[in-house]
Design a protein that fits this description.
Layout: H1 8-26, E1 36-40, E2 57-59, E3 76-80, H2 92-95, E4 96-101, E5 107-113, H3 126-138, E6 145-149, H4 152-158, H5 167-175, H6 179-184, E7 189-192, H7 200-210, E8 215-218, E9 222-227, H8 230-252, H9 262-272
Parallel strand pairs: 7-8
Antiparallel strand pairs: 1-3, 1-6, 2-5, 3-4, 4-5, 6-9, 8-9
Length: about 270
């Protein structure tokens, strides 16, 4: 398989993905092949060969909702492969690949990585990742990366009937546990009600929540965040999860925590310009 040369800027972004992936694994947030990361490297990729005919091409079925958004044509992503393990992204050329969505947004060419296997493919959630990033870019955001993972305490809290269907309350109990959550997850946490993993319903719900919130929780499943790079997206989930962890620890100790007062929360909001 033909492989393309990667410049230093692209290598740095992949290194950030590899670093974030190890954090996810160490925290037990990425069992087996759970979780995904993708990053749009179009703006830093540099020149392409005059022809991509020598690179493997996959054409989407174009049946139902399995379609890239038209505006994603020509975009270049690094993305974890389907069935690959997050922990193996320390070898990104094996567990991930760089691909370019073709000019009519009906398929993609694999430019780098992918284990040199003929049936290699990006994560099954890749189309939804592309939709999220395109929405962010259209809104003027600098976000280029999507991280999906299974943070234990955020998921556990989404099982609680009192909080699972009230995202304002869910956010509040995370915010109140430690000032950093209010400061560094300022737009809060949106909840996507449980639905089939990988479905169009899930993808649309995630886009809706991430348009308004820093983190989207898939009820009883996982979390998604975006950022300018993989480490920034990871930070949103990591900080939010600290709030959920502290709250659940208090409940497990037999009491509901008082939390940071409303006045102190207001002062945080004013101080940090939230």
């Amino acid at each position: 398989m033909t492989q393309i040369f990667l410049n230093e800027a692209v290598k740095r972004e992949i290194d950030k993905v590899s670093e974030a992936a190890q954090y996810l694994w160490q925290r037990e947030w990425a069992e087996r092949n759970g979780g995904n990361i993708s990053v749009d490297v179009t703006e830093i990729f540099g020149e392409l060969p005059p022809s991509l005919d020598s690179f493997p091409h996959c054409k989407l079925s174009m049946v139902g909702d399995d379609q890239f958004p038209k505006e994603s044509a020509g975009h270049i992503f690094f993305v974890k492969g389907t069935g690959e393990r997050i922990r193996e992204l320390d070898q990104p050329q094996l567990a991930g690949c760089i691909l370019r969505i073709d000019d009519d947004a009906q398929g993609y060419h694999i430019l780098w990585g992918g284990r040199d296997l003929p049936d290699y493919a990006p994560t099954s959630e890749f189309i939804s990742h592309v939709e999220i990033i395109m929405q962010k870019q259209q809104a003027g955001s600098a976000d280029r990366c999507v991280v999906h993972t299974h943070p234990i305490e955020l998921i556990a809290l989404s099982h609680h009937p009192k909080y699972a269907h009230d995202e304002e309350l869910y956010t509040h109990v995370c915010w109140q546990m430690i000032p950093e959550v209010r400061a560094f997850v300022p737009r809060g946490i949106g909840i996507v009600p449980y639905c089939m993993p990988g479905s169009k319903t899930m993808a649309d719900g995630t886009k809706e929540k991430l348009a308004k919130h820093d983190v989207a929780i898939w009820e009883k499943h996982g979390a998604v965040a975006t950022g300018v790079d993989a480490l920034t997206a990871f930070d949103f989930i990591d900080v939010a999860n600290k709030g959920a962890k502290l709250f659940l620890m208090c409940l497990a100790s037999g009491y509901e925590p008082e939390g940071v007062s409303k006045q102190a929360m207001h002062e945080l909001k004013e101080t940090f310009g939230l």
